[in-house]
Sequence to fold (285 residues):
Amino acid sequence: MHAANAPRQRDEAYRGPDRSARQRFLDARNFVVFYGYGHAEEVQRFDIAILEPAAWDGDSVLRLKDAGLVVLAYLSLLEPQPGEALDGFGPSDFLSERAAEACGHQQLIVDPGSPRCIERAQAKVTNAMRLHFDGLFIDTVSDVERPVLTRFDGSVAPADQLALAVVHAIASIRQAWPSAILCQNMGLETICRLSVGSVDGFCWENFNRCPQNRWFWKTLEWLAGLGPEKRVFLLAEGGDCTVTDSQRDIEMASRGQSLGFLTYLAPRGYSSGVNLIEALTKGTR
Fold:
């Protein structure tokens, strides 16, 4: 599927972001990331919900939107999910097993330079939009931010080429779905500075685990300087549904909030439950 043709395949019943959705995205006070099933009442307590589309049907998404939420669908751009059908894919469409190991993954990573990378992404986006999501939470882009990665045939895949291919894939989604709200997770080494024109926000996952070195502070400064038309999300995984992992997590989250960032301290795995303290302490509907 070509990006330019994707809008023609929208379901006639598709209800994308209304005019106020983008403003509500910019005005949001909190957000939740939940990849499990159920918990609709808890999810509804937040302003922005990032959800696994396979766990929700269109009516459920519409009920969240009718309650005033901005609802984003999780999209793994470069990591196929377990059991995902990859019809038409061959070895040349993936980076090497060694590249996957370098990223700490067992599954292969899709080569962002492969035409099938964009085709797969567009098919997933089309499905999410048919479920009435307002936009996308684009994940796994940072897989290619490694000094040396190889393709399946053993040839070197330069990091700058892979980064540009990821940026092109994100831009193709923006071109095909101009009204969608796009949030990019990670890719803060190089990709974010190239994709900034195509997305509405950035998420820094597990920011609390990063060493507070020069890169950390420069990245924080860059994110803080994006201006009011971009949202920044700080996401930390760990702990249960009622408490955070440590006082350090709380202090890091407070620092982000002072910069106008939204923060969420998620239960481990993002699918075991919803941390309602995050909604209760930052204002609810």
Summary: The chain has one domain: 3-280. The two ends are 40 Å apart (CA to CA).
